[in-house]
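Review box. Two proteins, two foldings.
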Amino acid sequence: MRPEIPDKLYFKIGEVSKLAGVATHVLRYWEAEFPIVNPKRANSHQRLYRRVDVEMIFTIKTLLHEQGYTIAGARKFLESGHRMGTKPESTVPEDSTACLTRIKSELREMEALLIGRDKEKKI
């Protein structure tokens, strides 16, 4: 469950850290790994996160900590335009059993050919 985000324009890194429940160094790391999180910088070089950045941090935390994505997997998920609650399309063919059975059969045929060649060489 996500905490309520206060109604503000900008959030400092410490505030975002408390809201998201992650350390500030983790936020800086995610900022480097996920270009979609891009806080503005104040004249004092302090990071200023917008509401959209905070929401994206919650999404990243959910992907990594709750759904078990890797950093690369979460990055791909977000870059492909998927939203939380949706699943990416499967790349496995619908009739994968038939496909695997056909591959297994072809491999056995190749094995038989190779065994036959070995027997010819020994004679």
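Next protein.
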Amino acid sequence: MVTTSFVLPRPATASRSFGRAARLFERNVVVYRRTWLVLASGLFEPLFYLGSVGVGFGHLVGTVPFGGHRVGYADFVAPALLATSAMNGAIIDATFGVFHKLKHMKLYDAVLATPVGATDIAIGEVAWSLARGLIYAVAFLLVAAAFGDIHSWWAVLALPAATLIGLCFAGIGTAATTFMRSWQDFDLVQLGILPLFLFSATFYPLSTYPTAGQWVVRCTPLYHGVALLRQLTLGEVGWSALGHVGYLALLGTAGVVIAGRRLERRLLP
């Protein structure tokens, strides 16, 4: 009598999933070794804004109210531009990069022939996107410190906060990219990013908005990143910082989950 035994596959642990995602992260690192200039180019836009708006225009504005007192305009704008650097770095690869690999390179179809799964792909791409955002944030923070725009030891937490901002926008961007059908859809990305940049209390206090506008701004993820970094760099940290952290972490996690499910639906039969 011949008996056949069946061994049920063991469920993948979290460490194995992150290990598989790390392979995709490593692949992106290897690719960007040859295109480092493209990676570095994104560093300059926020620095130009800091030099022109924060320093040049700041001499005309003088000071603005923050935390019950007045601060220099350059000091007020610098953390907002730091948040923008993290956002820009994360959103580029999470949208344009992921779409190119998904739609034209068919990279993920080949990746799925390995033990790497759709959720692993989402985690790996989000990790790379937030890493790029962190690179931009580090460079900008060093320049802001050189300009004298850092005024508190709380600023040591600015990099973890910038990483959280990168996670938020990398997750949202990757999830949104799975719904895009063509390059024309990326006009919607720019349509979303530009208003976020201009109207997230980046260049003027939230109190300057009308009441209804203030509630709209409070719902945007970049505002929470700007408010969090502004508290850290200016030393006005309150309990609201925990709310900003929770909001960004929730959106980023939700984006990763949605991206994993969408990639599985698009790539797997």
